[in-house]
Task: inverse folding
């Protein structure tokens, strides 16, 4: 059993198994239904932006998937309401394809950075991932 959680793998596994993920505004965490695992919405991921402006947070990827199919204005309004940066329009198809299982890999995942974004399970206490 792994001692760490990769935010990208966690989100993909949750999405593909159709488990609901909710955002807890009080704690700024994403909570997986029927689980004690809660990860900060601002957790860094290894998903590179195509525009070269860094990497997406777990919250940005989650919100994009949650609002997939919604009008752009509704997506932007919901993301802004919770202080979650938007996924750039150039990245939306790749994000959606990867996390819904239509693709098994993505060149946007920086494998060299991935190890730096892992969250140690020992840092998850009473359902809350500690910020480092």
Result:
């Amino acid at each position: 059993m792994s001692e760490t959680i990769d935010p990208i793998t966690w989100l993909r596994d949750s999405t593909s198994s159709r488990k609901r993920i909710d955002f807890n505004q009080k704690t700024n965490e994403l909570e997986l239904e029927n689980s004690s695992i809660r990860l900060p919405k601002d957790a860094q991921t290894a998903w590179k932006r195509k525009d070269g402006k860094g990497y997406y947070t777990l919250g940005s990827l989650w919100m994009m998937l949650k609002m997939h199919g919604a009008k752009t204005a509704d997506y932007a309004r919901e993301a802004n309401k919770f202080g979650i940066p938007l996924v750039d329009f150039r990245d939306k198809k790749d994000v959606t394809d990867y996390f819904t299982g239509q693709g098994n890999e993505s060149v946007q995942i920086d494998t060299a950075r991935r190890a730096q974004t892992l969250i140690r399970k020992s840092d998850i206490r009473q359902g809350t991932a500690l910020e480092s």
In short: The mean pLDDT is 89. Residues 39 and 129 are 5 Å apart (CA to CA). The helical segments are 7-16, 58-66, 72-81, 92-99, 111-114. The radius of gyration is 14 Å.
